[in-house]
Design brief:
heterodimer; A: mainly alpha; Four Helix Bundle (Hemerythrin (Met), subunit A); B: mainly alpha; 3 helices
Chain lengths: 172, 100
């Protein structure tokens, strides 16, 4: 139990530090790499929580595909650093205050209203829980229609991206 | 497993960091990355509750969130490229034609 707690705290510190690093880094490439670290940490959390397949999907989809797309666009546009300063000087303190308020509010609900959440789940889970066959069973038996809809959504996104980035002749 | 409250608390912290990032950063790409961070925080809560209730539905929902996030990133980044082509900036303070 204590080993679990130490592991959780270590990973949580890494995840939060990576998120904060993403927020404060001036260079966009550094922000993207911090986000990759954060996603990898969350993938380890998925492993701890009994989702090996979803953990691997997190690595391949998020840190593999999505962040490479981000880095590719950063490289394509050459916008590692942004010039110019903030025009709205009051925005940062206001945003930080509102974020702190939201944190206090969620902390209040977690600490003082912890009715069913304070219980921890059972120690043992079924052997195949979260594995590829369990995921496929749930996806294609109970959620077959949403899978189809997600496929259509991805197709629409692909067509939309091609239409948006198509280089038209005669336009510079 | 650890109490599910721990995971929900971490998820809330990451979500709030993402929300603050959307508000304080002026770079369109970093704003977009903060939105991804918020989606991931929600996914962490989903997986924690899937473990708690021993139900695959929570994990399956994470797959749908990932699919939507992938579509969103593709469309959003192509929009950013289109904006950069038209305006040669991705600073959101400079994109203020609608201000009147």
């Amino acid at each position: 139990m204590t080993l679990d707690l130490i592991l959780f705290l270590l990973l949580a510190v890494i995840a939060v530090a990576a998120a904060v690093g993403m927020l404060v880094s001036k260079n966009t490439v550094h922000a993207a790499l911090f986000l990759v670290l954060n996603f990898a940490t969350i993938a380890v959390f998925y492993l701890i929580l009994g989702g090996p397949f979803i953990s691997m999907a997190q690595i391949t989809v998020y840190t593999g595909a999505i962040m490479v797309l981000f880095l590719f666009v950063i490289m394509l546009l050459g916008v590692e650093k942004l010039s110019g300063q903030d025009k709205l000087s009051w925005q940062v303190p206001t945003a930080l205050t509102l974020g702190a308020l939201l944190l206090l509010e969620s902390g209040y609900f977690l600490i003082f209203r912890r009715t069913p959440l304070e219980m921890s789940g059972t120690q043992s889970i079924p052997e195949a829980f979260g594995g590829p066959s369990a995921v496929a069973d749930a996806l294609f038996q109970h959620y077959a229609l949403p899978v189809e809809i997600a496929g259509v959504l991805l197709l629409v996104a692909m067509v939309g991206v091609i239409a948006l980035t198509k280089w038209e002749k005669g336009r510079s | 497993m650890l109490p599910v409250t721990y995971y929900v608390a971490l998820s809330a912290i990451l979500f709030i960091l993402g929300a603050v990032g959307v508000l304080i950063r002026r770079n369109l790409i970093v704003i977009f990355m903060s939105v991804e961070l918020m989606l991931n925080a929600a996914n962490l809560a989903f997986v924690a509750f899937a473990r708690y209730y021993q139900s695959m539905s929570g994990q399956v929902f994470v797959f749908f969130v990932m699919a939507v996030a992938a579509a969103e990133v593709a469309v959003g980044l192509s929009l950013i490229v289109a904006i950069y082509r038209a305006r040669h900036t991705i600073n959101v303070d400079d994109l203020s034609e609608m201000k009147g």
